[in-house]
Amino acid sequence: MSYKTILAAVTDPAHLTETLAQAISMAGALDAHLDVLCIGVDRTQTGYYYAGMNAAVLQETLHQAREDASELATAAKAQMDTSGLRWGVTEAVCQLADVARFVASHARFADLAIVPRPYGEDRGIELEPVVEGALFEGQSPVIVLPDTGPELKQPQKVAIGWNESAEALRAVRSALPFLSAAQSVHIVVIDPPKHGPTRSDPGGQLSQFLARHGVKVEIDVLSKTMPRVSDVMRRHVTDISADMVVMGAYGHSRFREAILGGATRNMLETCEVPVFMAH
C-alpha cells in the first residue's frame, strides 16, 4: 500500500497557503498526485427562515460563496503551478449543512486527506465538517495540521496513541506506509487496564503485528499523571521529539466529544505536530 492520491480541502484564504505548502511537501515526498478542493461556503441553511432576509439577500450570500471559491481556486492554481507535481484543482460551492457530504464525495477516492486544524480562534465553523466528512463518510485517513511546523514529509519518529480500540487499530493499519518507513515508532499506552487479556503485556500484540511489517517499534507505558489523557500524550510526544501522532478518531460519540471534549478534540486543539487519524 502507498499514498498515491492526496486530497487537500480548503475553505478559508487565511489557511490556504500553509495548507497547500504542507500538502505539496508531502505529495512530493510520496511522489503522489495532489487534488485541491476549493470550497466556497454558502452559510444560509435550507429549510430555515431568517427574519428580515429576502430573495436578494439570499442570492447575495450565494454570490459571495462563488466569489470565495473562485478566489481560492485562483490562488491554489498559482501555488500549484510552481510545485512540479501532478495536480488538479476543483472549485465548488456548497451550503454549510452539506460541507461534510461534499468533502466525503471527494475523499472516498483519495488515499489521504490533509486539512488545517479545525479548532481555534481564527477557525471557521465549516472546518469541523471538513474533517468529519473525510473521516467518517469519505472513509479516508486524515492528517490534521498544527498551526505552525516544519515541512510535512515522511515522519522519522511516530507516536501511536494505543488504547486497543477499533478506531486506533484502523488508524495504525492506515498509517502502515508511514510506520514502515519511519526510523522509530513508539506505541504509547496510558494507564492500561489492570484486568484484561493484555494486562501483562500492554501493546504487545500490536508490537508483534508491526514488527512483522518491518516497523522499528518500542512500547511506552505511561501513568495518567495529568488530568487528561491527551495532556499526557502531548507531553510524551514532546519528550521523545515525535514528528507525527497516529490515533483513532472519536472513540465516544461525536456529540459527546463536542459537548464534553475528549482525547480526539483535545489533541486537535493542542498538539504541535501533525495528527494522523482514521475511523
Topology:
Layout: E1 5-10, H1 13-30, E2 33-42, H2 55-81, E3 87-95, H3 99-107, E4 112-116, H4 127-137, E5 142-145, E6 157-161, H5 166-174, H6 176-181, E7 184-190, H7 204-211, E8 217-222, H8 229-239, E9 244-248, H9 254-260, H10 263-270, E10 275-278
Parallel strand pairs: 1-2, 1-4, 2-3, 4-5, 6-7, 6-9, 7-8, 9-10
Antiparallel strand pairs: 5-10
Tally of DSSP helical segments: 10
CATH architecture classification of the largest domain: 3-Layer(aba) Sandwich
Could you say how many structural domains there are in total?
2
The sequence of SSEs as H and E is: EHEHEHEHEEHHEHEHEHHE
Protein model, in words:
With 279 residues, the chain is an alpha/beta fold. It has two domains: 5-145, Rossmann fold; 157-278, HUPs (Rossmann fold), CATH 3.40.50. Helix content is 41%, strand content 22%. The protein contains ten helices and ten strands. The protein has helices at 13-30, 55-81, 99-107, 127-137, 166-174, 176-181, 204-211, 229-239, 254-260, 263-270; strands at residues 5-10, 33-42, 87-95, 112-116, 142-145, 157-161, 184-190, 217-222, 244-248, 275-278. The protein has a ten-stranded mixed beta sheet with strand order 3-2-1-4-5-10-9-6-7-8, sandwiched between helices. The mean pLDDT is 88.
